[in-house]
Amino acid sequence: VITVPEVGSLFDAPADVPDSADARRRELAVLATQVKGCDRCPELFSTRTQTVFGVGPVSPELCFVGEAPGADEDRLGEPFVGAAGQLLNKIIAAMGLTRDEVYICNTLKCRPPKNRDPKPDETANCRGYFERQVELVRPKFLCCLGGVAAKSVLNTTSGIMKLRGRFHEYKGIPVMCTFHPAALLRNPDWKRDTWEDMKTLLRRMGRPVPGK
User: Fold this and answer.
1) Segment 155-169 mean pLDDT
2) What is the C-alpha to C-alpha distance for residues 127 and 109, in angstroms, rounded to an integer?
């Protein structure tokens, strides 16, 4: 189990988190506006169409975390809306959930050119936004989609093959790591492993496992 140490925020955002769901939604809107005006990464700032903050309710049971927006997400301003997003929707439905019940975001809020992996300084520049977002959303569980997201959230160099299938922890929140839906489109054989990961997650969440 990898436990992430408390990482200080890169920004001067208030450390307190309101208990009220309405207050947290308002603060998320303010944070999204701050993200929209961010120019910390010149290459990302100059090539993005728009930032992609996140969607979903506050206080959800589950938050899915990807690495960064792709072309469709950059165009539409919402995470996981392309082919990988359609597959994620199927995974969510297979779990007995709906997309509206979960929160979905990325560790990076801008699309890297040509969908390349985020650079270390870009991940660091966006870290404070991600940390505050999770604080305000307050999910009970996190699911990292893919090795890049998992490495970033868990602050580890381990790959997805080592991380998947068991629980880790991010600031007291249980974290399950699994393959990114885009990887499943390239490697359909991994779908079975991903479903095993989701069943393990559902059991920990205390939810019924469909088809059991």
Assistant:
1) 97
2) 10
